[in-house]
Design the sequence.
């Protein structure tokens, strides 16, 4: 908003310094070793909410990491925005692939971020993004410019599947009641092409274990006579895709909704340079399901990927061994109307059937989540569209994101509220990878855009 501009400009350096301090806290949710840091991060988040002007700031305990809550209730007649984000981050390893230590943030210029980007684990996912909301809120409070009631719910377990948040939401429906959920944890197409995320893929994550002989064997003495579980697992995994690179799990595509020609044409009209995409990744060409473009393959098609596999000897040099066991972690990205619980059962059945008699297999589920589509004809979408248009000077394009935020579908079901997925990262910001970064342009643009959303949303809800 115009009246906020001088404040945002004058406080730029402090906004940056405060974020850098948060990035120094290694709030890795997956590793119990960091539990103390995760808590420290929750406390720092709560302190920032308080300082920005939130009331009822509280750290809610769960069976896992805590949830930070805060609110500003202006007027019972005003619409209520629930801001959701996560203060936890992915593990930083492999550490040796970072150009600077993951929890010692530095600002450096890059080709896509000529004004500089903050390099640190969590810079984009999601500390830099949720903190934009705290700073935008601070600015609105300082100018009596807040037009909606606002509730913040910042959790510490998104990167491990939001196990305890669902229970918290079910038990605190009243506390969390709202008209819309506002989330910045996704990407824009590029800094000249603003976009709003209108879809998230679901997830079904499995781990498999294949056991052959009851102990490791000499690969010469026994080799050729008994099934090698690593060889067998490779074959089983290879058979999970056919020549068209479709997933062969029986029934996998049964519930996939057909996307209309019109929508596919629209998706493919978004700017996308496949050559530059491949070049950036250092690959000679892209690869995926036949009959679909890259945008479609990541936006509207389900997938199956091995995230890691191990077994046998992986130390220095060579050791001849026929291992007893082999393992793999396999994830499936899902699209509407696939159901992660149903897919889990289909995968289990299929995988068990694939195994030859000479091995035993165990299939174990990890976390999952439902896919999401966001309607583009709602008041909240229109308000977000107007907010971005105001800040970027261009109307944002709707874009389906390939990633997952499992809790979003639950907001729909439990809180009966639609989400606005207004993220400001770039797909190339290396979230979950070494050298994760977040552009300063993106950070400040987000802080500028958010207050517009509050204003337009309140205006449009009145009508
Ligand atoms: N913020 C991401 C999801 C995301 C990123 C969506 C970019 C769209 C564009 C989120 O933190 C994430 O990483 N989610 C996980 C799922 C979770 C259960 C570990 C994912 O997508 O792998
Ligand atoms: Mn995230
Ligand atoms: Mn993430």
Sequence:
């Amino acid at each position: 908003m115009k009246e906020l501009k001088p404040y945002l400009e004058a406080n730029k350096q402090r906004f940056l310094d405060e974020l850098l301090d948060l990035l120094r806290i290694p709030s890795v949710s997956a590793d119990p070793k960091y539990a103390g840091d995760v808590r420290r991060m929750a406390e720092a988040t709560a302190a920032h909410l308080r300082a920005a002007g939130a009331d009822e700031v509280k750290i809610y305990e769960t069976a896992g990491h805590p949830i930070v809550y805060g609110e500003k209730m202006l007027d019972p007649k005003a619409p209520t925005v629930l801001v959701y984000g996560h203060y936890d981050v992915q593990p930083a390893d492999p550490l040796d692939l970072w150009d600077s230590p993951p929890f010692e943030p530095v600002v450096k210029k890059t080709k896509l971020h000529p004004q500089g980007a903050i390099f640190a684990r969590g810079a984009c996912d999601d500390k830099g993004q949720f903190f934009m909301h705290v700073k935008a809120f601070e600015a609105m409070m300082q100018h009596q410019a807040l037009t909606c009631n606002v509730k913040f719910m910042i959790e510490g377990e998104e990167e491990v599947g939001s196990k305890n948040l669902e229970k918290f939401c079910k038990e605190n429906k009243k506390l969390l009641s709202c008209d819309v959920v506002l989330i910045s944890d996704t990407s824009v197409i590029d800094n000249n092409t603003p976009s709003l995320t209108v879809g998230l893929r679901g997830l079904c994550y499995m781990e498999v274990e294949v056991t052959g002989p009851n102990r490791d064997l000499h690969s010469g003495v026994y080799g050729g006579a008994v099934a090698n579980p690593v060889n067998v697992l490779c074959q089983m995994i290879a058979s999970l895709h056919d020549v068209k690179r479709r997933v062969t799990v029986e029934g996998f595509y049964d519930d996939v909704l057909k996307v209309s020609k019109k929508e596919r044409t629209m998706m493919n009209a978004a700017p996308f340079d496949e050559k530059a995409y491949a070049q950036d990744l250092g690959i000679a060409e892209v690869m995926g399901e036949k009959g679909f473009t890259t945008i479609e393959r990541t936006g509207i098609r389900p997938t199956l990927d091995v995230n890691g596999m191990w077994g046998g000897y992986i130390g220095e040099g060579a050791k001849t061994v026929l291992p007893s066991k082999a393992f793999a972690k396999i994830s499936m990205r899902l699209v509407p109307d696939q159901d992660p619980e149903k897919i889990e059962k289909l995968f289990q059945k299929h995988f068990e059937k694939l195994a030859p008699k000479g091995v035993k297999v165990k299939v174990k589920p990890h976390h999952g989540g439902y896919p999401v589509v966001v309607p583009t004809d709602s008041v909240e979408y229109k308000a977000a569209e107007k907010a971005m248009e105001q800040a970027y000077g261009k109307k944002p394009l709707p874009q389906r994101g390939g990633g997952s935020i499992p809790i979003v579908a639950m907001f729909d079901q439990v809180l009966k509220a639609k989400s606005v997925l207004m993220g400001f990262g770039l797909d190339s910001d290396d979230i979950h990878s070494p050298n994760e970064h977040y552009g300063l342009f993106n950070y400040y643009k987000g802080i500028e855009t958010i207050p517009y959303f509050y204003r337009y949303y309140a205006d449009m809800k009145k009508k």
In short: The chain has two domains: 2-200+371-462, 202-256+302-369. DSSP finds 13 helices and 18 strands in the chain. The mean pLDDT is 97.
